[in-house]
Design a protein that fits this description.
Mean pLDDT: 96
Number of strands: 0
Radius of gyration: 17 Å
Shape: elongated
Bound molecules: MU-OXO-diiron
Strand content: under 5%
Order of helices and strands: HHHHH
Helix content: over 70%
Structural class: mainly alpha
Number of helices: 5
Length: 167
């Protein structure tokens, strides 16, 4: 059985993963507004990944006979001026989520809950990939600088991303 503290933290992470989904949906919308359909598609795929992350927490809570608590989801911002600010915010968000996952691992150890610690290992690894894929976008945009043709080519590449792949 999950301890009350562990259950609350897992429900909080379920909410955080759905917030991630909502944030990336806002980023997809903004990229579409900026006439970057490839970036918009990349974030749409990211939305699906975050929904899958959320459902992993949902299923795990139920598997441990915990009570799922669906909390309200905050309104994400949507006024990014350009592609670099969108992807930089996405990277900051992933770094924040990584920190949250590490805090959950710490809590699982404190609560003497090796099953939850083992469950969280998938997310520890996933966060390394999540950060690397968004950081890849940040770095590519830095190399492009102010090149509109470079941005056009990058946008076309991002349009090829499929669910389960970084790009
Ligand atoms: Fe669910 Fe992008 O971390």
């Amino acid at each position: 059985m999950l301890s009350p503290k562990m259950l609350q933290a897992l429900n909080d992470q379920l909410q955080a993963e759905y917030f991630s989904s909502y944030l990336y949906l806002a980023m997809a919308a903004r990229c579409a507004d900026l006439n970057l359909p490839g970036f918009a598609h990349w974030f749409r795929v990211q939305v699906q990944e975050e929904n899958q992350h959320a459902l992993k927490f949902f299923d795990y809570i139920l598997l441990r006979r915990g009570t799922v608590e669906l909390k309200g989801i905050e309104k994400p911002k949507g006024d990014w001026p350009d592609a670099p600010t969108v992807v930089e915010d996405a990277l900051k968000h992933e770094q924040y989520i990584t920190q949250r996952i590490h805090n959950l691992v710490k809590l699982a150890r404190e609560e003497n809950d090796p099953a939850t610690e083992a469950f969280l290992q998938w997310f520890v690894t996933e966060q390394v990939e999540e950060e690397a894929s968004v950081d890849g976008l940040v770095q590519q945009l830095k190399i492009l600088g102010d090149s509109p043709s470079g941005l056009f080519i990058m946008d076309r590449e991002l349009a090829k991303r499929q669910v389960g792949g970084a790009e």
